[in-house]
C-alpha cells in the first residue's frame, strides 16, 4: 500500500499546521509553529530562520503540480491555499530578479515638504562593492552605511543625503545654519557657540569647517525631522528634535567623521533605491542602525577623539585629541589633520 502524496488536498485540516520546506539542496525543514490564520509573512520569516534565505530572495512554490505562490505578506496561510502537511518548494532567486520584480520592502516614509521633488543620486559619495560595504540584513532589506567623502564637510554631506538625497548641497546647508543662528540670538549666544556669533557664522561658512551638535540641532528644527547621531565607539544615540516630529533620519559618527544610513532592498541595488527617512514608531530601524554602528566598532572603524594623536598637515604641529585640534584650527586657520600612532 503506497503512502498518500503530501500534495493531496483530501487531508483534514488542523489548528496547528505542519509545513515542510524543501530547499535548493532538497533538504526538508519542518515548521510546526503556525496555524491557518498566520500571515504569509510569518511563514517567510520562519523559512528565513531555518534556511538563511532572506525574505526578498524567497520564491515559494506550492500545490501539485508546484506553482509559484502569489500571496501577499498580509494574507493568511489559509487564503494563500496552504494546507496542513503541504510541502513548500523554496527557490532562492538572484539579486537581479529581485530588482526587476517588486522587493518585499515597506513603502518609504513620505519625504518632508522641503525634500527635492526629483531625488538625485549622489555623485560624490564613495561607492564600494557589496563585499566591502558595512550592512545589517533585516526582513525588509539591508541597513547600509553610505560613506561620505573625508573633506571636512562630511556632516553636511551626510545630512544632505538623508534628507534631500544629494551630497552636493553643502554650502546651502551651511547658509541654513548661519541664517538660523542670526535669527535666534538668544538661543545661540556667544557662550553656546564658543566664540562671537558673527565670527562663528563666518567660520561655519567656510568649506573646510567641521559641523557638529549645533548644526544637527539646527537641521532638525529647520527640516522638522528628528536626527539621530549614533556614536560608534560608545553606542550612544544623540537625538536632536526628540519627541517633536513623526519621522527620523540617521547619521553615524565615528569620532572625526560622519556617514549616512540608508535602507536598501539588496546590497547591489543603486542608491536611487535607498530609503533614508523612517517613521518614528519603527523601532526596528533604531535597532538595525545600532547594529551597524556595533559592526563598525568590531571592525575598529572609529577614532577615540579624547586621546588620539594628530599632526597638522599644513604646519606639522603635533596635537592630542579633538579639543587641541579644534583649538589649533581656530587659532591658525589650518584644517588639514592626519592621525598617526
TrEMBL record:
Q: What class of enzyme is it?
A: hydrolase
Q: Which processes are annotated in GO (biological process)?
A: endoplasmic reticulum unfolded protein response; ERAD pathway; protein deubiquitination
Where the record annotates domain OTU, the positions are: 143-264
Q: Per UniProt, what is one GO molecular function of this protein?
A: cysteine-type deubiquitinase activity
Q: Where is the composition biased (Low complexity)?
A: 102-120
* Catalytic activity, reaction form: Thiol-dependent hydrolysis of ester, thioester, amide, peptide and isopeptide bonds formed by the C-terminal Gly of ubiquitin (a 76-residue protein attached to proteins as an intracellular targeting signal)
Keywords recorded for this protein, A-Z: Cytoplasm, Hydrolase, Metal-binding, Protease, Thiol protease, Ubl conjugation pathway, Zinc, Zinc-finger
Job of this protein: Hydrolase that can remove conjugated ubiquitin from proteins and may therefore play an important regulatory role at the level of protein turnover by preventing degradation.
Entry protein name = Ubiquitin thioesterase OTU
